[in-house]
Amino acid sequence: MSVKKWMLILVGLIFILTILIPTDSSAVPAFARRNKISCSTCHAPFPKLKPYGDEFAGSGFIIKENEKERDYITAGDDLLWLNREFPLAARFDAYTIYDQDNPVEADLQIPWGLKLLSGGTLYKNIGYYFYFYMSERGEIAGIEDAYIHFDNIFGSPIDVMVGQFQTSDPLMKRELRLTFEDYELYKPKIGISQTNLTYDRGVMLVYGIEKTGTDLIGIIVNGNGKGEAGNDKKFDNDSFKNFGFRLAQGIGDHFSIGGFVYTGQEKLMGEDEIKNQVTYWGPDFNVTAGPIELTGEYLVRKDTNPYFKFQDEEVETRCMIAEIVVSPQLDRSRFYFTALYNKIDSDLNVYDYQTATLSGTYLLSRNLRFTTEFTRDLENDANRLVLGLITAY
Asked: What is 367-387 written as a DSSP string?
């Protein structure tokens, strides 16, 4: 074994021994600090949400029974709800990585990411949320999630989110995963297309039918991501808008199925007649059985002309993902285990991707966790080992 591999193992062991020394941790993230509740009320473990955490987020980050006038500055104005203390939190991710399929096999990615988060109440049934990546993979990534959430508009079961979010959020939320390995099916941009299912600017509408356990979600977005405004000060680079729709149906307390469709057009600047039609469709499901949660999704993407040639050249990309999370003691667990499978099979082989991941998480405190993860790249016959430390405060 080479010297650098031995050095990586030594650093990893020191890293593990150091963080396993018991310490007191008094820091808590913004929502727990604001509402004086444990992080475990919403997360198991963070950032993965429990059902109550989903409900809290779906209510615009408001616990209505806890909202009291003394927590706000109203100045005698019934239409003013200013937070007495501005809610602010931070997240720090650090990783030690051995990647067999990388020219630099051993890498200390410390920190991999550092971001500031804020969220809370604007007024009664109106909340906000945003975070700013001060450093992500060594660069200032800027604002990612940033939106205003209107809950139960006019007393109806309709929620509206306005701002910047991931188009895949109604499916599997990338920001809430427990693994270093990503949910890859949402990320590819085929050819020179600017469209995928990650961050975009737009509006999301959610309609919940409590009696039947049905959720209807509609999305309208620019379709070209979250890039900077162009020379004309416009964020969208064409007049088209993209539309998405998801139907999710709960069956009992432990099973749900859903379907997702998304479509839109795009064109190159100055080439009005050359267009690419992007369409996604696919089913998904989620099932929980005691300490085991299984989520699966199959997604097909079709591009009619991803290289914007004068003659259409259709490309189909088929994606699937399966994830199992095991919580031996349910939401009181300190150990969690995750198995994740990613597969992308495209007519353009350059986008093919297939990995299998096994990950273990140990909760050192409610807002500090250690992870160890092994990923096998089945496409390139390579391995990756990750040791991680993630905290929020």
From this structure: TEEEEEEEEEETTTTEEEEEE
CA angle 54, 389, 130 (to 5 degrees): 40
* Domain count for the chain: 1
Structure tokens at 5: 């591999």
Distance CA 371, CA 42 (A): 20
- Domain range for 116: 3-392
- Whether 162 and 60 have beta carbons less than 8 Å apart is answered as no
The encoded tokens of residue 338 equal 């995750």
What would the pLDDT profile of 43-55 be if each residue is shown by its tens digit? 667 677 666 666 6
Cα dihedral across residues 249, 254, 255, 258: positive or negative: positive
pLDDT confidence of residue 26: 33
Long-range pairs for 145-150: beta carbons < 8 A, 24 or more residues apart: 145/175, 148/122, 149/60, 149/61, 150/60, 150/125, 150/126
Strands (DSSP E) found in the chain: 72-73, 82-83, 89-99, 106-123, 126-136, 142-150, 158-166, 199-209, 214-221, 242-251, 255-267, 275-289, 292-303, 315-326, 335-346, 353-365, 368-377, 382-392
Strands (E), 44-105: 72-73, 82-83, 89-99
Q: Is the dihedral of CA 208, 209, 212, 218 positive or negative?
A: negative
Query: Which residues have CB under 8 Å from 199's CB, separation 6+?
Result: 144, 164, 165, 166, 167, 225, 226
- Judge whether 78 and 376 are in contact, CB under 8 Å: no
Q: CA-CA distance, 221 to 236, in Å (whole number)? A: 9
Is this model's pTM higher than 0.90 or not? no
Left (φ > 0), alpha (ψ -120 to 50) or beta: where does 349 sit? alpha
Spatial contact of 129 and 163, defined as CB atoms under 8 Å apart: no
Q: pLDDT tens digits for 183-206?
A: 999 999 999 999 999 999 999 999
Q: In terms of Cα–Cα distance, which of 290, 260, 222, 288 is closest to 54?
A: 288
CATH code of the domain in which 142 resides: 2.40.160.10
236 φ/ψ angles, rounded to the nearest 5 degrees:
-85, 145
Angle of CA points 321, 323, 329, to nearest 5°: 170
